[in-house]
Amino acid sequence: MELATTYSPQEAESKWYPFWLENNFFHAKVEEGKEPYTIVIPPPNVTGVLHMGHMLNNTIQDVLIRKARMEGKSACWVPGTDHASIATEAKVVRMLREKGIKKADLTREQFLEYAWEWKEKYGGIILEQLKKLGASCDWERTHFTMDEGYYKAVVRTFVDLYKKGYIYRGLRMINWDCEAQTALSNEEVLYNEDGERSVLYHTQYKIEETGEFVTIATQRPETIWGDTAIAVNPNDERYQHLIGKHATVPLTSRQIPIIADDYVEKEFGTGCLKVTPAHDINDYEIGLRHNLPILDTINLDGTMNDKGQMPADLIGKERFVARKIAIKLLKEAAGHIVKEEEFTTKIGRSERTGTVVEPKLSLQWFIKMKEISRRALQAVEEDEVILHPTKFKNTYRHWMENVRDWCISRQLWWGQRIPAYYFGSGEDDFVVAETPQEAIELAKKHNPNLTLADLRQDEDVLDTWASSWLWPLAVFNGFDDAYFNKETGKIEIEKNAELNYFYPTEVLVTAPEILFFWVARMIIAGYEYVDKKPFKDVYLTGIVRDKQGRKMSKSLGNSPDPLDLIAQYGADSVRVGMLFSSPAGNDLPFDEKLCEQGRNFCNKIWNAYRLTQRWEKVEKEIDAKNELALLWFEAKINQALQDLEQLYSQFRISEALLTIYKLIWDDFCAQYLEMIKPPFGEPIDKATYEKTISHFEVLLKMLHPFMPFLTEELWQAMKLRTVEQALIVAPYPKAADFEANEKLLARAEQIFEVISHIRNIRNQKQISPKQTLDLHIKSERMSAFVDFIGMIQKLANVDKVVFAQKKPEKSVSFVVKADEFFVPLEGQLDMEAEKQALLKELERAKGFLDSVLQKLSNEKFVSNAKPQVIENERKKQADAEAKIRALEEQLAAL
Questions:
Q1: Which of 249, 285, 451, 628 is the residue whose CA sits 20 to 30 A from 812?
Q2: Shortest CA distance to 559 belongs to which of 34, 19, 55, 46?
Q3: How many distinct structural domains can be found in the chain?
Q4: 244-271 pLDDT tens trace
């Protein structure tokens, strides 16, 4: 088939993705005798659009799933999206606001109608975008975490864990997102690694009994009116006389006690701590120990209320606005602030909205994590689940050993509603059940006269992660009635053919920042419900950063649109560009030039195939040069295949790509094709050509997981193939034994080094590539070169190869391993001009050596410089001396 002059990625992508879909190549099914290979996609938020992190993550998954498919496995890549409670509700509220509708004016049912309408319109965008990337997901298995069956699974596990004693409801200090107006788990609170600038305000409180003042340093003066005590260390002599006395809260008449508590550090700040139990977790603990009252002065929306004799100017103001007013009042009205001190601190922000998190005392639902997490910690410790790279094992251990109870309730409407039903005003007047019908039966055990109308379901929904932690089980319907045993609280996996076949999954590809959010919790759920790990390996990708090392984000405007990149360079080029410098766990410094490099690689392969198609093929005997080239390249392929298996097993995907890249660009295009290429206008023997096409097919198979579109295009162009012979399902090549050819590979490498030296001499001496040169070889093992003389002559344009024991006059020499090579230059150069050029270079080298020697002879420099600096200077000296000797030898030879 005649190929176009240039490769058109748009044409290939529009042709082959529909072809793969139409022929159902992406769908996996249970097949006896066939090995399963499963990947579950980290479900992107239904609100999301494709960004560079998705590109990296999903390209890696597609590489792994395509290779497994070619290996004859039942390769199942399950796609789907997460309902993303906080993010989606915020989008819907914003949409309603634009229509002039307030959420507060809607019933829950009305709001959910709008939410589902929004989801149906925008929720599938990111999955459609993944198709542009070439993602070969089993689209028939697409799941959404709010689908009816999935919703039921989440509710069912809540009820089950409640029955097992893992879930409880309690009044505890939690993290509150004032913008989204919902609780957050500890893991949903992010901290800037470098901290944030803040100010400590040193504020005076008057002691009622003595008239003296104590000074307290606070960065939150707006919370002063929530103070219910001042704490000092019991061993702090400065304040022992004040313990038991009372201080007056500034700008009020309210008095609070001075208490002693070991939590207070004498050396930190002023040694006095304002205790605000409603607004700080540590203060809350102090309050419990001393039975202090709780004054919650901040409303759910972050505005101030009138508790604690709050000044009128602050009431109703947003907390950060109130802070400014409070500072002004404390300074001007009473002179309470005596000092301001800037410092750097870590401030918790909501992972979803970015707003500063407010610690609040709240009645929420929690999962007890210590016991249920034990098996999941052991699994990673014992490498039952292996993290790649292994450095994250320490992070995982730290999290799991210090795990805290998980706050799973959210004050939202979009999500799985908590299946708790209240029937009275008492603290324990509730039941937990999957349905209202089951709930009323349970409630009647408390009061037989109750009816369904008496039940009120909890208004809150579950944390999004409390649904996605079931992902590897729920996508195979593990919690359906037919498989879940309510008595044992276990999935009877043997009854579910698909779950039994595809679970555990093979590898999870995800980002390190959700190692605990999602990965650890899926491991917990796996052992809790089927006594099995959910996956064997976890490949943790790095963060995509720009050339300046900044994390790519919309706010910085430093992230290219992935679809624009695909439109400009083609999906294959972008996939390759993403992976060129992306080892597991390391950040990816992305540069658009990487996509250009990918495009150049596409064109190189395209043109290499077009070159072979221009050759005339004839039946004639294969010559020795071609026979050697075929033997050598077959050994190179098998060596690469052996290396690739090790790289894939270690999830070194970037290195696997580079191995294939070098094999194709350097070995196949730059070396092999040049070796066998017939002289212009002459034919090639048919045996060499057919073997070359066979090699090309193997290369396409190796490359297909990385560049699916280009490779399928060329594969189909090579010969007429049936649907079943498509490259996407072609058998992946296996490494053959190449030990017999290892000597051949080693000798060939030496020959290529010789050729490279000759080419460098041409460049340095400005000798035309068309001008033939002679080569003299001085070696104790001349037989090692005999077979390769033709290769040297062809690739380096050498006329005569002479084995000699002495150096010819007027020649340039070089050494490769233990052998010496000479290229006579008489008649090739203007010898006088060459001599002058060498003299100038010699003069520069001697000048450089003098400057180095001056440094090393300077006693002050030598005595003060670090050993590494001295060592570097000595290396410069040795290099300069070697260069001078070489130049002098070249001059002597002229």
A1: 628
A2: 55
A3: 4
A4: 999 999 999 999 999 999 999 988 888 9
| 126 and 242 together in one domain | no
Residues 210 and 326 in one domain: yes
Q: Are residues 253 and 117 in the same domain?
A: no
Using alpha carbons, select from 839, 856, 820 the residue that is nearest to residue 892: 839
Which is nearest to 637 in space by CA: 563, 689, 703? Answer: 703
The CA distance from 882 to 212, in Å, is 81
CA-based nearest residue to 459, from 408, 406, 420: 420
**Are 707 and 575 within 8 A, CB to CB?**
yes
The angle, 0 to 180 degrees and rounded to 10, between the axes of the packed helices 708-718 and 686-703 is 150
Low-confidence ranges of the chain (pLDDT < 70): 1, 553-556, 582-585, 740, 783, 827-831, 834, 893-894
- Among left, alpha and beta (phi > 0; psi -120 to 50; other), residue 333 is alpha
Is there a domain that residue 852 lies in?
yes
Query: Read out DSSP for 398-450?
Result: HHHHT---EE-EES-SSSPBP-EEE-SSSTT-EEE-SSHHHHHHHHTTT-TT-
Long-range contacts of range 477-483, CB-CB < 8 Å, 24 or more positions apart? 477/149, 478/153, 478/503, 478/529, 478/530, 479/149, 479/152, 479/153, 479/156, 479/157, 479/529, 480/149, 480/153
DSSP 562: H
Yes or no: say if 317 and 303 are a contact pair by the CB < 8 Å rule.
yes
DSSP β-bridge partners for residue 360? 174
How is the beta sheet containing 456-457 ordered, strand by strand? 430-432, 420-422, 456-457
Structure tokens belonging to residue 762: 């041409």
* Helices 789-796 and 624-649: angle between axes, nearest 10 degrees: 80
State pLDDT tens for residues 76-108. 999 999 999 988 998 999 999 999 999 989 999
CB atoms within 10 A of CB 416: 24
Per DSSP, 616 falls in state P
Rounded Cα distance between 454 and 314, Å, is 41
Q: Taking a C-beta distance cutoff of 8 angstroms, is the pair 686, 617 a contact? A: yes
- Domain membership of residue 853 as a residue range: 830-894
Q: Do 171 and 493 meet the contact criterion of CB atoms below 8 Å apart?
A: no
30, part of any domain = no
- Distance of alpha carbon 363 from alpha carbon 757, whole angstroms: 77
Cα angle vertex 169, ends 166, 172, to 5°?
110
**d(C-alpha 255, C-alpha 793), whole Å:** 99
